[in-house]
Amino acid sequence: MSQVENVPLSKIKDNPWRDRVRNPIDTDRVEAIATSIEKTKKYWIGTYGRKTAKGFVELAFGHHRYEAAKAQGLKEIPIIIEEFTDGEMLVWMAQENVGGGLPVVVEAVFAAVKALGEGKIEVDMPSPDTRKDVIRYAPSFVIKGPSPTVGERAYTMDTLARYLGFIKKSTNRAKDSVVAAMGILERAEVARAEKVDDSEARAAALEKSLSSMTVRKAVEAVSGIKQREEQVKARTEEAKKAAKEFDAEQRSIQAARKAEEEKAEAERQKLVKQLAAAKKEEDDKRALEIKERLAEKEKEDAKRDEEFVVKNLALEVKLEENKKREAEAKKEDEYLPIRREVERILHKLEGSTATTKEALAEEIKGLTRKSLTLRDRDRLREEAQKMGDWYSGWVADQLLPPLSVQKTLANYRSRAESERRAKEAKAVEKAAKKEKAK
Q1: Containing H/E element for 4?
Q2: From the first residue on, what is the mean pLDDT of each consecutive set of 10 residues in the chain (438 residues)?
Q3: pTM for the whole thing?
Q4: Is 58 helix (H, G, I), strand (E, B) or coil?
Q5: How is residue 82 annotated by DSSP?
Q6: In sequence order, what DSSP letters do the residues of 273-313 get, joined into one string?
Q7: Helix or strand or coil: residue 50?
Q8: Can you list the positions of beta strands (E) in 98-254?
Q9: Roughly how many angstroms between the first and final C-alpha of the chain, as a whole number?
């Protein structure tokens, strides 16, 4: 049964599912509530909470009112006390702040998956006919999570949204904000799994950047990131497959050549023995025939060796082209984190104000120490140019210099040399086929 108690501010704690990093306190909202308290000389009842075993009160919701009370110097505030479960604390917090934007939904979705993974809440199990490619396993946000046979709790975006109350009534499916939040948390988890020195910082920055967007833009950005990652994965798999095929082809050529050499050697030994027998019998005519056959055989062997050389040369050209593609794919993969930084700064540039220029200046300084592509430099310059004098005064000096003439010529010469070697290999192979046809 609920009851109202005046609780000292020193005895109040946040909702255990409240995440002030993912969903920071809105200072403007706190200031507005503080002004209301000051003008009316009254703290309006409407804050709910539950008591803990140690005598504290955890807020179900009302964190902004709590901060406003502290700002006004109040010593205690009235709180409606209920016997909330962990799940009820989570749902009440989510529903009270449902209009607070994407950070609120990200906070609620993260807390719900964590609570499900810890066994503190229960959501509907996916039906048997649910597609496998939409099932996740708490506490992971990635679709292809661990196997359910080791105790992980299965859920889908829709079952989680129904538990939180974030559904479209017309379809009983998850709202777009839940789709965006799940995508943001999934991309952050993938970034953390890369296990590089700054993976944690990069994951946090990615999550913060995407959470600051509108729901529609966040969904588009997450889809773009996922698509690029899938393309990188596909290129890597393709490169591995090509390498295996080249290796198998090379082994096949070597095995065929060895077999031909062994056969030729056996035939030569046979002819040598026949020649020795002919000499012994003083059969000059027979010996001459055998000599001619031996000479013809040596000529055939030489021609066969030449064909093997041509095949190996063609294979080497293919291997070199494959290595070049792998190097380009690796370069693109290594550039992916820089591209994310470019996208994040472009987003800030689109909505930047005078108060954010100094912070953007520091971020652009850090970005220009990295090897940007010409296209990303142009995109940053075009967006920054819209900001007027600030662009001409600083950003142009950071992003204007294009690739040097020497580097451009070096790239051109490298491509020209690769094309020359490929043409040369094709010419050799064509000549060998023509000679064989004769």
Answers
A1: strand 3-8
A2: 91 95 92 92 88 95 94 94 95 82 93 93 90 91 66 87 93 93 93 84 91 91 85 78 79 83 84 76 76 83 77 79 83 75 70 61 76 78 68 56 59 74 81 77
A3: 0.58
A4: strand
A5: -
A6: HHHHHHHHTT-HHHHHHHHHHHHHHHHHHHHHHHHHHHHHH
A7: strand
A8: 136-138, 153-155, 167-168, 173-174
A9: 102
